[in-house]
Write a structure and sequence with these properties.
This protein is of the alpha+beta class. Helix content is 15%, strand content 37%. It has 8 helices and 26 strands. It has helices at 2-16, 63-69, 266-270, 279-285, 290-298, 364-368, 390-395, 400-405, and strands at 21-27, 51-57, 72-77, 81-86, 91-95, 109-112, 116-120, 124-129, 140-146, 157-158, 161-163, 170-172, 179-184, 188-193, 198-202, 217-222, 231-236, 240-245, 250-255, 304-311, 319-324, 328-333, 338-342, 357-362, 371-378, 382-389. It has a 4-stranded antiparallel beta sheet. The chain has a 4-stranded antiparallel beta sheet with strand order 6-7-8-9, with no helix packed on it. Strand 18 (240-245) and strand 19 (250-255) form a beta hairpin. Helix 4 (279-285) crosses helix 5 (290-298). The longest helix has 15 residues, at 2-16.
Length: 407
């Protein structure tokens, strides 16, 4: 097929030039992973493959659009679509059609939900209502605020608070220490302060706040179990949370219904998916004393982990980046490998199947193709990964600190 040959040659050429390249896998029911070209949503002309089980390059198959807008800086996925932010500050939508401000230029960052887009520019922040309705024929600017050009905030942080992708959009934030990063889960928020401590607030009914109780918090409360540790990153999923220490250790807590914490899940043991055997069960049954190991594992089932717990990756790998989906987790190691675990019903773990897994498992595709993983972004039911060719990366190896925590 000439087109597939062209795509392969393009990928090899781009990686050979030392450029970053994005892959996607998981839920693709609205074509939110594979953009088919143009600035309008491709769903009308797309025969969707609902599940992408193996990582696929996000093809730049519309030359005019990608040449004009530049390469992908980051994907910002919601459930039914993905907005690709390009290096030129333009936005490319892919997925379920909705009203979209395609002529936007100079965007620095964004946050997306099913109904709203929050956009950060050098001098302002805008919120657009993109819901398609019979009454409204185009997107509507519903809220905005100005930013001083010398103010530096990691979105969705803004002066005196932060933004959420629903009315009233602005939330006040009062802390003694300045916030470095803030992430939003489905029902909770996580924040990393300038003194490298972690705060959480919102709903705590699944233990996602890490305060050892299942109570809600109306405002930021320090995660006491992590005090004394220097934390360098945070991530929030549907109902679980993750933080990385300066030594590359993962601390994780919250709901473990689908194994998204990487600890033994009773749900996965009791309800194996049709035609599949859980990764952990397979290892146990094929090893000496498997039955005893299964019994020991059963005694360790975790449904809710209400305070941070240390999670070890295979090979004692140190972690540089982590991201959470609704019920799955992905981690990038300092060696450029990607590990995923949790709910995998749509292939969002990238292991070539739809099996859920309650243990961190390496995504073999990238190592098999000599690709060094730099970054990962999880959507609710899918995963996006940024890579570079290992040979190119090895020619200019960054220090551990530079690679790990200056994404």
């Amino acid at each position: 097929d000439l087109f597939l040959t062209w795509v392969l040659v393009t990928v090899v050429f781009v990686m050979g030039c030392g450029m970053k390249f994005w892959f996607g896998f998981g839920y693709n029911g609205f074509a939110q992973i594979q953009h088919t070209g143009g600035t309008e949503s491709p769903i009308k002309n797309f025969v969707s493959r609902k599940k992408i089980r193996i990582p696929e390059s996000i093809h730049r198959d519309d030359n005019v659009v990608w040449k004009e807008f530049g390469s992908i800086r980051k994907p910002v996925p919601s459930w039914s679509d993905t907005v690709f932010l390009t290096d030129s500050g333009r936005l490319i939508p892919s997925g379920f059609p909705r009203h979209f401000p395609c002529q936007i230029q100079g965007c620095r960052d964004l946050h997306a939900s099913e109904n709203f887009l929050l956009l950060q520019f050098q001098d302002r922040v805008e919120c657009w209502d993109t819901r398609p309705t019979a009454e409204r024929k185009k997107e509507t600017l519903v809220w905005q605020c100005e930013l001083a050009e010398d103010e530096q905030y990691v979105f969705p942080l803004v002066p005196k608070g932060y933004l959420i992708p629903r009315p009233p959009f602005f939330k006040m934030l009062t802390l003694e220490n300045k916030a470095l990063k803030l992430v939003l889960g489905t029902e909770h928020a996580m924040m990393l302060s300038c003194v490298k401590t972690v705060y959480s607030w919102g709903s705590g009914r699944h233990g996602q706040l890490g305060h050892s109780v299942l109570a809600d918090e109306t405002g930021p409360r320090i995660v006491e179990a992590l005090q004394g540790l220097v934390m360098v990153d945070v991530a929030a999923g549907g109902w679980h949370s993750v933080s990385i220490s300066d030594g590359g250790d993962i601390y994780i807590w919250g709901w473990n219904e689908s194994g998204q914490l990487g600890f033994p899940s009773k749900t996965l043991c009791e309800k194996p998916e049709p035609g599949h055997t859980s990764d952990s069960a397979h290892k146990e049954s094929s090893s000496p004393g498997g039955s005893a190991q299964q019994n020991n594992r059963a005694e360790m089932f975790i449904s809710i982990q209400a305070f941070p717990a240390l999670l070890d990756l295979p090979k004692m790998s140190e972690v540089s980046k982590v991201s959470c989906g609704s019920r799955h987790t992905a981690a990038v190691t300092c060696d450029g490998d990607l590990y995923t675990w949790g709910w995998g019903a749509y292939g969002q773990l990238g292991h070539g199947d739809t099996t859920s897994c309650d243990e961190p498992r390496i995504v073999q595709y990238f190592s098999e193709h000599s690709l060094f993983v730099l970054d990962v972004v999880c959507g609710p039911w899918n995963t996006f990964v940024c890579v570079i060719d290992k040979q190119v990366q090895s020619q200019s190896v960054p220090s551990k600190t530079e690679h790990s925590f200056n994404a």
